[in-house]
Amino acid sequence: MNFRQLEYFLAVADAGQITAAARQLHMAQPPLSYQIKQLEAELGVTLLNRATSGVTLTPAGQLLQNYARQLMDLRERADSQVRSLGQGLAGVLSVGVVSSSMGAMPNVKLRTLTRHYPKIQIRLFEDNTYGLIDRLKQHLIDVAIVRTPFSAVGLASKELMTENMVAVVPRKYDHFPAATVQVTDLAEVPLIIYRRFERLFQTTFAEQGIHPFIACTCDDARTAVQWADARMGVAVVPQTVAEEISGATAAIRPIRYQPWRTTLKLVWPAEVTPSPLLQRFIDSY
User: Fold this and answer.
1) Nearest-CA neighbor of 222 among 87, 101, 48, 136?
2) Which one, out of 29, 79, 96, 202, has a CA that is 20 to 30 A from the CA of 264?
3) Structural domain of residue 185, as residue ranges?
4) pLDDT tens-digit series, residues 201-217
5) Do residues 170 and 256 both lie within one domain?
6) Are residues 228 and 193 part of one domain?
7) Rounded CA gap, 169 and 224, in Å?
8) Rounded-to-10 torsion of CA 241, 244, 250, 256
């Protein structure tokens, strides 16, 4: 028994006549009759009551009709879903994100992609940049949004956005001489810094010959902003994080210092040819 025989059988059962079914199938009547008889011989039962006026289903034929419709429907759905997966229209994508990627994900194009292809599922894994790079190397995730600076080989990448660092300044510390903060101004206030940039900041402070008081070091840029809003110090974080998280109790002051500019990048293993689904995701940025 094969799908073609089932298709022929359903056509005859629905038409009630072999001749009419043959016309619908665009084939001659003898080959169709032969296929039905072959199916009956294989199953060892009579499926059709044949008369000059047409055919009716035997009890065995009625049972097969139910199963045949289910099987044909299952085949159609399997064919559709497998093709969709192969074309990047469905499937599961594992995406790593850093906490400071809120300015890049989700974006308008990604929302459009998932609206057009609602069977695409995205599983998010949150970690710091190097944790996500390790996950990529172990093939635990498909792609990641990470933030410079970082050093890693074997990664393909796509630059998403570059932004300045800013100071999130509670009113009690908002005594800077200008709206734009200089690095040397930070020596006068307690700082809350995101551990991801601790080495970069300390190197800069040493080069500038200043020794700011680091009141708090944390693992999440959002936490740094929240502590600044609580008037625990001045947070130094990427601009998009400050704009998304900071409340009305603190001002956001740009820090115009080129070495502190940071870039969000989309990265994936260079040795892996992106699947159609992954390529659609990459193209959405």
Assistant:
1) 101
2) 202
3) 165-260
4) 999 999 999 999 999 99
5) yes
6) yes
7) 11
8) 40
